[in-house]
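Justification of computing resources. Each target in the renewal requires a structure prediction run like the one illustrated here; the chain below, 345 residues long, is used simply to show the kind of job we budget for.
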Amino acid sequence: MTKKTIITILIIILFGITLYLSWSYFGKDLFIKKDTNTNVSNNTNSNILSKESEEDLLDYVVSDTEVLKLLTNGNITKIDQDNNEEILSGSEIEDIFYSEFSPEKKYLLIGYGEAQKTFSIFNLQQKEWIQLPQKTSGVAWNPSGEKIAYITSDLQLKVFTIKTKNSKTLSILPIAESDIFWPNENEIYFSDKPSGFHSGFIISYNLNTGKFKTINEKIGLTTHWLNNEQRIDSYYSQDGLKKSSLTSNQNIIEFPIGAPIPFKCTSNKKIIFCGITRTTNNILLPDDYIKNNLEENIVSWNIETDEIKTITTNQQSISIQNPSIYKEKLFFINRYDNKLYSIKI
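Resulting structure tokens:
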């Protein structure tokens, strides 16, 4: 074998290794029917906003091995690394008002129904449904994804264990019509339904002591946990200005990028990404957002360096829902068309 032939073979091998490493890092294209990209530019960067799915979605989750989707008709599908699509549940479910995948992506919890609200768990591996007790009004996964805290219509706080399918009563809630969060194993949090018309509050329940504690109370208070360490609160100050704050490892930092609605944000713990309403003139938040779609720009805030970047501009109609980060991309459902989009970050 000549020296030239050996060099040619080595070059081919190196090229193959480079392609494999690129595939391993960025992952295969896990989405089918990818649409044409749309350029969205700002003063410093030119970012590409990509439509990742033609289906109308309510929820999704992206991982190294698969993409799970909840469609607006109630179907649940999975796409693997080779772009093979599987229908996990073909049940058509109407009036879905809540959905959340478990932290370990084993289950999907959905709430549906108008006259009678029902919550059910779908086992994504065994492809079977488990219904929570009737008259459930609020739900939250525990951090391991094996239990669900829920509130009954008579304000009992209970915990449902999926493995045993048994419920345990913990306490009676001191508030009604509350959202529920379970960010760490020791505490469950509750917040009343947000509105700019009245004062809202956040209450914690300690599972070790069985005691409730009010941790925040402000006009128009809206809250959301990004992870087990970071929480965003949005509220109106005493002078009537809309503000937001980040609680991170017990430190409270005021947002320097306007007042995002908390559940329109996500984080990799270092950088916060939010959909920021383009105008706040004559808008009452979060009421007007809940009633209508409000156009937004996606903005990032590095909490270590305080650097702020506008990722999109007014050239694209965006109202983000269920934002999440996977590798170097931000994913979200656009409320204007219910499609899944991504943008490189």
